[in-house]
Amino acid sequence: MALVHDFLLDIRGGERVFMELCRMWPRADIYTAVYDEEGTEGHFAGRTIFSSFLQRLRPSARTFRALLPLYPAAIESFDLSGYDLVISSSSAWAHAVLCDEGTVHVSYCHNPFRYAWNDRDATLAARRDPLTRAFLRDVFRRWRQWDWIAAQRTDRYVANSHTTRARIGTYFARDAAVVYPPVQTDRFAPGRVGDHYVVVSELMPHKQIDVAIEAFNRLRRPLIVIGDGPDERRLKRLARSTVLLTGRLPDAEVAELLQGARALILPAIEEFGIAAVESQAAGRPVIARRGGGALETVVEGLTGCFWSGGPDELADAVVEFDDPAVDPQACVRNAARFDAVQFREGMRAEVSAACSNGSRALARDRRPLPPTRLVRRAVMEAHR
Q1: In the prediction, which pLDDT does 267 show?
Q2: What's 182's DSSP letter?
Q3: Closest Cα to residue 354, out of 176, 223, 235?
Q4: Are 238 and 297 contained in the same domain?
Q5: pLDDT value at position 357?
Q6: Where is average pLDDT lowest: 115-129, 182-196, 251-265?
Q7: What's the average model confidence in pLDDT over 33-59?
Q8: What mean pLDDT, rounded, does the chain reach?
């Protein structure tokens, strides 16, 4: 069997899910568009890993996005003939691998590629250069066409939340079961609580970290922002004296900061939000923007609260939420619903169901044409 992931350049939420898949199938070959052993902290060292032709360009976690138009060709370049089972872990292009007719392909979907689908308009609006905006608009249009066709070849989809399941249905016209991501809850435990609040996130514009920074600038309460990303420089300029951006930190330090936080702040709607579960595993509540996976992981009034709007509304929620009244053990019990054991059981059940003849026959009937390249070429010709 083979395991496929979009890219392996650092360790974030999607990579932690993929790590668990690798533990479940320790002999499976790994395919990914680009790979960085140092960036992934050696978690995949010793495995048989195949990367694409893009590896020659040596992209990093900071530069790989510049190669965006090339990833569809990169993922299609893999030769997966001879594999009986392929499991992809996809938030962009991994679900589009080309498999033999006799191969069962199960795709664990973190989210359909956000920049081409649910965040398309916001992504284009953020580009001031009209030439760049026009170029991206065309790239996203072609990506949607390619993405939909690729989705019809997959035997079975598994979504990380009901939010993602709804998007798979809307964008791909495919159904999906929900299996929540594995959270290493045993890394966390309740402890002594301090005065600070925490954000744990990649520093990307769609994460809306600026909303949290502006709220805490006004509150003048201590906020620690853990993570790195392309938006880091802008966010540091926004932060005042009570807001600290630490960059990426080792897991042990993240666990310690979560354990001592008054609450975790979720300023954006997440498809699932592993950090929200980690915070509860550490006995701390979550103040989350209402929507998405937080509605499935946070129990309002028991393990956290919800808010909507901008910095003012977040500031009000922080002031009004009675975090000392939260029972740490209630948070821990709620987090236990999302541990790795539940994920393993759910994924094995979904893979088993996909391998049954009835399930595979249904997916095969939905495949209009096997090779995506030919279809994409025809679509391009039709639009000329």
Answers
A1: 97
A2: P
A3: 176
A4: yes
A5: 62
A6: 115-129
A7: 95
A8: 91
Tokens representing residue 17 in the block: 């899910």
100 CB burial (10 A radius; 0-12, 13-18, 19+): middle
What's the pLDDT score for residue 379?
A: 38
Number of CB atoms found within 10 A of residue 97's CB: 25
pLDDT exceeds 90 at position 136: no
Which residue intervals of 173-229 are DSSP H helices? 209-219
Q: Is 320 exposed, middle or buried (0-12, 13-18, 19+ CB in 10 A)?
A: exposed
C-beta separation of 197 from 262 below 8 A: yes
Q: Which amino acid is at 141?
A: R
* pLDDT tens digits for range 112-133: 998 889 888 887 887 778 888 8
144-163 pLDDT per residue, tens: 999 999 999 999 999 999 99
Give the C-alpha separation, 209 to 244, whole Å.
Answer: 12
Instruction: List, in sequence order, every residue forming a beta bridge with 265; answer none if it has no partner.
Output: 287
* Whether residues 15 and 100 fall in one domain: yes
Residues 224 and 323 both lie in one domain: yes
Q: How many CB atoms lie within 10 A of CB 378?
A: 10
**pTM recorded for the entire structure:** 0.88
Looking at the structure, tell me whether residues 66 and 96 fall in a common domain.
Answer: yes
Residues 246 and 314 occupy one common structural domain: yes
Q: What is the CATH number of the domain that holds 70?
A: 3.40.50
- Residue 195's identity, in one-letter code, is D
Percentage of the residues of the chain whose pLDDT score is greater than 90: 81
Q: Name the token pair of 89.
A: 């872990």
**Cα–Cα dist 272/292, whole Å:** 7
Polymer length of the chain: 384
CATH assignment of the domain containing 285: 3.40.50.2000
- The domain in which residue 224 lies consists of 185-338
Same structural domain, 60 and 82: yes
Q: Which of the 8 DSSP states describes residue 369?
A: -
